[in-house]
Every structure is written in structure tokens, then in C-alpha cells.
Design brief:
The complex is a heterodimer of chains A (about 70) and B (about 230).
Chain A: E1 6-8, H1 10-16, H2 21-28, H3 32-39, H4 47-56, H5 61-64, E2 65-67
Antiparallel strand pairs in A: 1-2
Chain B: H1 3-41, H2 46-72, H3 77-83, H4 86-120, H5 126-139, H6 141-147, H7 151-155, H8 157-160, H9 163-193, H10 195-226
The chains are: A mainly alpha (about 70), B mainly alpha (about 230).
Chain lengths: ~70, ~230
């Protein structure tokens, strides 16, 4: 499910916001497991979920996810 | 709540969950042993009847032990809500149901296949017809649960139906479809040789496909939670 072309900064953004995985999961209304798999690059979230995560962390999708050079 | 507290709480919940899973396995095994022992004891010689009753008694002990363990480590909704993470716990509970479903289905198959054989032999009574129909209806439960179409899943849709779960569900259904296709091809091949045997094997093919889907979902869900 993961893709090496994707650079994922969700974990950095979450810890910078002072949130636990469970806390972010509550804000995004998904399971902690979903956050865990996204952070570890196992699962690539949909556009909707990416936007939801970005909103919960008060940032932009581009700050969370980028294409590798 | 700090990260360390949260990890400890998570560990504690995992322990409770492991106990509950063990309890459900005991209940399932106990029920299967009771059914098997009961069926063996019917229309059998004295020795076989004694063995069947022994197996059924052992099953009853396992069943009661499982119920006691399950009660000791039961879910406590008031505790979940106060601690948060309710969605994860509901999803974990769902995974346990997916693990146990095929074991319960096996019971129906155990009753249904002899009934189908009796019906095909032309000496089926009302009970045989009932089980022959029930086994096919029962086979629909696994795919319905997997797709989240059952009553509980609809009631808990908000908690169970996130996009990651849908992805796991799709992968599990893909495996179930492959297993079903292979099963139907095999049953068709056997049907060319022995049509009556093919009809008997049809519910087993459905059971294997449904079980494969349920267990694949549970496996993927557990893997995602632990390995991430």
C-alpha cells in the first residue's frame, strides 16, 4: 500500500503540535491505527483524509506530504 | 494524558483483549465439541455414544470456562468512553468477531452437510431440509459482516467505516473472491463426475471462501495495528 515516492512528514507535524496519535485520530475522526499506518508509510491516505489531517494540524497538505525528488 | 500513560493504557487494553479473544476461542471450541459429541452420540453403539458424550461434556466445560474468563475480562463501555480511543476498541471488538465467525459457521456446516446428504439420498425429513436451507443462508453472514452490512456494523457505521477499514475490507474480499472462484471450479469439476457430491460440497466451498475473507480481514487489521 505504501509508495517510496511519497515523503511523509505527518509524525513531525503531529509531535510539533503536541498531539499523540490517539489525539490526532480523535480530531480527524479516524482510528489510531489509521494514523499509525499513515505515519509509517504503510497506507497512503485519500485526498479527503489528507485535507482533514492538515486541517486538524493547522497546516497544509503540502507540508505533510510531498513527492520525493 | 501523557504518551507514557497512553502506552500503558494501550498495553492494559491489549491484555484484556487477548484474554477476551482466548475466552471466545474457548467458547467456540466448546460449542464445536458439544455439537460434535452430540452428533456422534446419536444413533451410535454404546462405545461411540460414551465417547460422544465425553467429548460433549469436555466441550461444556470449555464453554463454561470461556464464559467465565470472558466475563472476568469483559468490555466496560463506561471505562472506554472516559479514557478515549473508543473507536479503536470498537474496531478491535469487530476484529474478534471476524475471527470467531468462521468457527460458528463451522458448526452450521457440521449440522448442514449430513442434512444435505440425507436430502440428496431421498430420505430427508423436515429437520434435514431446514438445515440444508439454513446452511446456505448462514453462508451469507460472513460476506455481509465483511462488507459491514450486518445490523451491528450499520449501527456503529460512524466508528467502523473509516477509509482505512474500507481498504482492508477490499483486500479481504479480493481474497475471498479468489478462494470462492477456485472452490466453485473444483466443485464444478467434481460435479461432472459425481453431481450429488458436488451439491454436498457447495456449502463447504462457500464456508471456506467466507472464512478466508474474515480471517484475512482480521489478519490485516491486526498487522496494521501492531506493525503499522
Amino acid at each position: 500500500m505504501g509508495d517510496p515516492r511519497l515523503v511523509n512528514r505527518l509524525k513531525e507535524a503531529r509531535t510539533a503540535a503536541g498531539l499523540t496519535q490517539a489525539g490526532l485520530a480523535d480530531l480527524a475522526r479516524v482510528s489510531r491505527k489509521t494514523i499509525n499506518t499513515v505515519e509509517n508509510g504503510v497506507y497512503i491516505p485519500s485526498t479527503i483524509l489528507s485535507l482533514t489531517l492538515a486541517r486538524a494540524l493547522n497546516t497544509t497538505v503540502e507540508q505533510l506530504f510531498q513527492l520525493a525528488e | 494524558m501523557t504518551e507514557a500513560n497512553e502506552i500503558e493504557r494501550e498495553r492494559s487494553e491489549r491484555r484484556r483483549h487477548a484474554w477476551r479473544t482466548g475466552a471466545m476461542a474457548l467458547i467456540g471450541l466448546g460449542a464445536a465439541a458439544m455439537a460434535l459429541g452430540g452428533v456422534t452420540a446419536l444413533d451410535a453403539s454404546d462405545r461411540e455414544r460414551a465417547i460422544g458424550l465425553g467429548v460433549a461434556l469436555g466441550g461444556a466445560v470449555l464453554f463454561v470456562a470461556g464464559a467465565v474468563v470472558g466475563w472476568r475480562w469483559r468490555h466496560r463501555p463506561e471505562a472506554w468512553r472516559s479514557e478515549g480511543g473508543y473507536r479503536d476498541r470498537v474496531q478491535r471488538q469487530r476484529r474478534s468477531q471476524m475471527l470467531m465467525m468462521p468457527i460458528l459457521m463451522l458448526l452450521a456446516v457440521g449440522f448442514g452437510v449430513p442434512a444435505v446428504i440425507s436430502v440428496l439420498a431421498g430420505d430427508g425429513d423436515f429437520a434435514d431440509w431446514f438445515w440444508a436451507v439454513a446452511i446456505m443462508l448462514h453462508a451469507l453472514i460472513a460476506p455481509m459482516m465483511l462488507m459491514g452490512w450486518d445490523g451491528e456494523a450499520r449501527k456503529q457505521k460512524r466508528l467502523l467505516d473509516d477509509e482505512f477499514t474500507r481498504q482492508l475490507r477490499g483486500r479481504a474480499m479480493a481474497l475471498a473472491f479468489v478462494v470462492l472462484t477456485v472452490g466453485v471450479v473444483v466443485v464444478f469439476g467434481i460435479g461432472l463426475w459425481r453431481p450429488d457430491l458436488a451439491v454436498t460440497l457447495m456449502p463447504i466451498a462457500l464456508f471456506v471462501a467466507g472464512a478466508a475473507g474474515c480471517w484475512r480481514f482480521a489478519w490485516l487489521d491486526r498487522e496494521a495495528e501492531h506493525l503499522g
